[in-house]
Amino acid sequence: MSGCLDNAHCPSFTCPDISERKNQIASVASGFLFFVGWWILIDAAANDPLKKDVYHICGVVSTVAFFMINAVSNAQIRGETFDSGCLGQTGARIWALIGFMLGFGGLIAACWILFGAYVASDDPNTWPGVAVFLQNAFIFFSALIFKFGRSEEEF
């Protein structure tokens, strides 16, 4: 009885080589997360009876952060480009830092909105707060995927 599984073998799987499609996959995943984030917020805003439109500001800030983070390439941040541009490598690093600070700020503001205005209140409808948080989280993660999930050799 001790040798009943001696002839059982797990099938060997080969992973497909996605290195040549890395930019396409990262762009599609990033765009999908960005779309889903805004779609969730639009759904919550359409169904929210209280219509707290001021809470959408952190989503706009996260969108601006998405564009700021991805406006500079990784090569510009590392200083590997031939043209210096506006303020050179230091300017690119400052621009990306401000973009990341806006992205984190939007995410932290969304947490504050979720817990401060919806979870801690007596209102049983917390979906708009969850939607604001999910929107900002999806936009932030889409910016990270778009920034760090792509290779720059194919541009």
From TrEMBL:
Q: Which keywords are on file for this protein? A: Membrane, Transmembrane, Transmembrane helix
Q: Where are the transmembrane segments?
A: 25-42, 54-73, 94-120, 126-146
Q: What cellular component terms from Gene Ontology apply here?
A: membrane
User: Where does this protein reside within or beyond the cell?
Assistant: Membrane
How is this protein situated with respect to the membrane? Multi-pass membrane protein
Organism domain of life: Eukaryota
- Residues making up the signal peptide according to the UniProt record: none
**Family statement:** Belongs to the UPF0220 family.
What is the name of this protein?
Answer: Transmembrane protein 50B
Instruction: State the organism named in the record.
Output: Hydra vulgaris
